[in-house]
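Whether sequence alone determines local backbone shape is best considered at the level of individual chains. When preparing material for the folding task, we compiled for one chain both its residues and its backbone structure tokens. The sequence in question and its structure tokens are set out directly beneath this paragraph.
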Amino acid sequence: LGVQVGDGGSPLRSLQADERVEAALQSLREAVRLEDNMTYMEPPFLHAPVRQCLGKVLLDSGRLEEAEQVYKQDLRVFPENGWSLFGLLETFKLRNQTRPSTDDEKHDTLNRFKVAWSAA
């Protein structure tokens, strides 16, 4: 997914960038729906779960609560996935600036992240 953000110079470029992000989010949500309906396969059809891409775009566009929910949903589908745990930790870090998450939840996620990557 390539979403090029404007140079921040003109309001029109910013609006165009916002529209591209919205289009990307719409496409990613549709891709998640399609992925959810795929037949289970080993190895999986897709290298990385699409929810991780959706979570990253939400995170980068400042939609922290939505990103958190997307990463948590991915962890329900792919338990203990290191990349989704990383995205969730990044969400907690950024969200602390606006609304702190519970220390227990952050601590638990950090421990799970360390275990997931301990053999990498």
